[in-house]
Amino acid sequence: MTTPAHILIVEDEIKLARFVELELSYEGYQVSVAHDGLAGLTTAREQNPDLVILDWLLPGLPGVEVCRRLRSTGNKVPIILLTAKDEVGDRVAGLDAGADDYVVKPFSVEELLARVRAHLRRTQEEDADTLQFEDLSLNRRTREVFRGSRAIELTAKEFDLLEYLLTNPRQVITRDRILEQVWGYDFMGDSNIIEVYIRYLRLKLEEKNEKRLIQTVRGVGYTLRN
């Protein structure tokens, strides 16, 4: 049985929040609600929802600031901003803060539900392409690599090696197996090439003194573990 998507609503208008909560629940989603910015930010960090519906004007911490703080820690949850502000500059400010979409009040609930479905579908498609270990993520489709929110530029072979390690986390992989799977069965070069590329990867992945994830198992090979 598929687990329903978890949606967080951050909205200080109690009646509107309840209305949206009921509509989403009726559609089969799991729903959490917060009524101010700080509570919304805390809930988003603690519960890791699949999508956030976030009001722009909130007590304490504005919606755009909640959005900005989530993005600053590398959180990529889809965020739909609810706003009464329909000026182009306001919309740009919301998108610049990291929102994925916006819906202008008053809105049609059918439109909001359609936006929710579209973003959840896009996220599911991206998840199928994404390999993740701790704060390290790799997207096979876009060939992007991140350590937290920090983008990492890799060469084609560095990417292939990291992808192979991420496909087999916590497994000790021999040098011979890495040569076969990453460089190919017909590779005739120096087997020390693996050590060279492991060193390149570590330099890039640990550039900001991040924790080492690629571990050496002496006499055997390498493993991805914390």
Helix content: 40-55%
H/I helix tally = 8
Q: How is the CATH topology of the largest domain named?
A: Rossmann fold
Portion in beta strands: 15-25%
State Rg. Answer: 22 Å
Topology as H/E string? EHEHEHEHEHEEEEHEHHEE
Average pLDDT level? 89
Q: Any idea what the CATH architecture of the largest domain is? A: 3-Layer(aba) Sandwich
Q: How are the strands ordered across the major sheet?
A: 2-1-3-4-5
Counting helices, strands and paired strands, the structural category is alpha/beta
- Could you say which overall geometry the principal axes of the C-alpha atoms support? elongated
The first-to-last residue Cα distance is: 31 Å
Largest sheet: 5 strands, parallel
Can you tell me the CATH class of the largest domain? Alpha Beta
Structural notes for this entry:
It is a single chain. The chain has 226 residues and is an alpha/beta fold. It has 2 domains: 6-128, Response regulator (Rossmann fold); 134-224, Winged helix-like DNA-binding domain superfamily/Winged helix DNA-binding domain (Arc Repressor Mutant, subunit A). It is 43% helix and 22% strand. It contains 8 helices and 12 strands. The chain has helices at residues 14-26, 37-47, 63-72, 88-96, 109-129, 156-167, 175-183, 193-205; strands at 6-10, 30-34, 51-55, 79-83, 101-104, 130-133, 136-139, 144-147, 150-152, 173-174, 214-217, 221-224. The strands form 3 sheets. It has a 5-stranded parallel β-sheet with strand order 2-1-3-4-5, sandwiched between helices. A 4-stranded antiparallel β-sheet has the order 6-7-8-9. β11 and β12 (221-224) form a beta hairpin. α6 packs across α7 (175-183). The chain is elongated, with a radius of gyration of 22 Å. The mean pLDDT is 89.
